[in-house]
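Researcher: Structure for this, please.
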Amino acid sequence: MGTNSFYRNRERGITIVLFSMFLFVLCSFLAFGLELGRSYTEEHKAQIIGDAAALAGLNALVAGTTYADVVSAIVANGSRNGASSSELLQTPPRCGTWLNNAFVPQASGVCDGSSTAIEVTLRRSLPASLTSIFGQSSPLVTTRSVGYKPLYRPGNCIRPFGIEDSFFKRNAISTGSTFTVSGSQSSGNWGKIDINGNASSGTAYTEAMLSNICDDQIRAGNHVSAGTGNAQISQVFSTILSDTTIPLASQRMIFAVTTDFPNGNGCVQLLKFIRVDLLSQSGTGQNWQATLRAVDLNAEPESMTAADRDLME
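Model: Predicted structure, token format:
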């Protein structure tokens, strides 16, 4: 009896030790899982804060403000969401463009009329309670957010580009036909149409060509001023062709059909609107040409809708 009792007590002791070891390992795994889950939660939270800050910076950029104003909007939004300026500015925000599904930055500290995107990098230290699972004193989480405005609007409103009715009649252009416009605007060719003052400067006109104008007041029969100058049309068409995001920016653009353009300042009448596809562009300055396809010779611009905003993480 004494021997059996001894072995039973020893087995019971070993079982208790093994169970204790198992319980310790299990609790360690549970603690690790919980801490790892918390780290993922903190990273997700930081990403959301960065996304919101990028959109705030984009809104400031769209309003035409300076780089300092864009940064101020980013910091103010981050502060409302619990992020410090040092977390948002350790890597300075950058302006740039969004082309071919990639962010192309401008020079540091520059935001100008060509900027269409904002990059925000947030660096945040994880809570001290998480240091044990990472084995370092102050583990960091880094998130990157890019807010951008597309170069196009699906369906499109009008772009301030007019082609004379006599041009269509002279070239017998019908639905499905391809045709070429080129060189400086002139009588018998094409011209800038000044809608909402967009032709008063090259920058304003370029922006209007890239983003369209939606306005219920734009309709056939209206008389509008004819802008002057070449207005970097070749660069505008090159930029539109470079945007390969679906639906393509180069497709189904709406232009105006007008009376003949004057030589210099003056007015033209909007006769109707056409929908075209931009097929190709070559040359620069006054020695450019663009090939277009007539999709609809009796199109209508869309009415005013909310501005587009997109976000890429």
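Researcher: Any notable elements?
Model: The chain has two domains: 2-148, 158-308. The CA atoms of residues 43 and 132 lie 17 Å apart.
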